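queue> holo job accepted (flavin-adenine dinucleotide)
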Amino acid sequence: MNAVESIFDEDILSRAETWERGARSWPSNERQLMTCARVADETHDVRTFEFRTQDAMPVRFEPGQFITVSAEVAGQRVERCYTISSPPTRPYLVAITVKRVTGGVMSNWLHDTLRPGMTLPAYGPSGMFTATRASAAKSLYLSAGSGITPLMSMTRASLDLGLNRDIAFVHSARTPGDIVFRDELQRLALRSPRLRLFFVCEGIGDEPEWTGAVGRLSLARLSAWLPDFALREVFTCGPAGYMTAVRELLREGGHDPARYHQESFDIASATPPPADAIDSTQQTFTVKLARSSKTFTMSASETVLAAARKAGVAIASSCAQGVCGTCKTKLLDGCVEMKHNGGIREREVQKGMRLLCCSRPASDLVLDL
Ligand SMILES: Cc1cc2nc3c(=O)[nH]c(=O)nc-3n(C[C@H](O)[C@H](O)[C@H](O)COP(=O)(O)OP(=O)(O)OC[C@H]3O[C@@H](n4cnc5c(N)ncnc54)[C@H](O)[C@@H]3O)c2cc1C
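queue> job finished
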């Protein structure tokens, strides 16, 4: 039987309540215990971990968002962001798909230690790299390596909802054996004529029978596969070098940058918040924590997060560069100079939220902590 196209043109992806009905809201600054339900290998160095909340309630999130996982590794508390690779249409299990990083603390700990039945604290979904904010009838998903995870959640959600959305998914990998979710994507593309799949591998690895593209993504290759790529809403996720190359390629190809969205997993590639934002002549401010009644003093040149840590106050954080949003906290009184890298929305700033990792005080502060 030929695959039948969906009849739903309606943009239910942007009506998040479609899958949120009944699901529990999990704020990004709320820590809760997650129980590992399943562990599955995706490739030789990528593994998916599926979690259930302690109360087994469905979780509310948007496709493309991440959670912040916390673990005690060698006596140190470590926190890292991981995109939810599962779709919000399957809210009972939240999956993260993790690539081992050579010498990396958390990724190796998860691979080597985390097994079904174990529990881990995590902070709720966060992030703005989501198809629900910039949905379009025609999308181009561009990913490399583990950057495939947010785009996989978006693809799964779109197909689960039966959306008549034209998705072109172009994924770059080192070898065919490194293509994460390869079998599932191929199965989905067979069933869904509006999902088109293109893989490009730098080398064939141990798969001499590979007939797909070999090399790197280029403008010539992209134009041949998708002559209409410049008209698509583009979502990109991958290593910093890959994203720089992709942006340049799209620019050359006449793609409108306003229709370009990207997520970086590479914290080091983000511009660090400038330390000289405030000309502090060693000015000292007092920070009061409203809920715990703790108080500490700090200099105007430090970030609030760094000063809190020095004062022994534990605040959830991950990137320390204003990217991930894990340390988002309400400022109840006072004002700060915040230089973030996309980890907070204007709407949240208007509501008094600040990222403590990239905020320096300009007065005494009261925080909702
Ligand atoms: C929004 C977001 C979403 C993400 N989603 C995913 C995802 O879906 N899947 C995924 O796999 N990853 C994802 N990441 C990346 C993830 O958060 C981690 O950065 C990654 O797993 C590496 O963490 P780690 O603790 O293993 O490595 P780290 O310990 O942080 O080390 C990273 C690198 O630094 C090097 N290093 C560490 N310490 C030192 C030192 N003292 N001196 C010199 N070098 C050092 C290590 O060798 C390694 O190369 C995401 C990141 C962000 C920001």
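queue> Residues 284-367 form a domain with the Ubiquitin-like (UB roll) fold (CATH 3.10.20.30).
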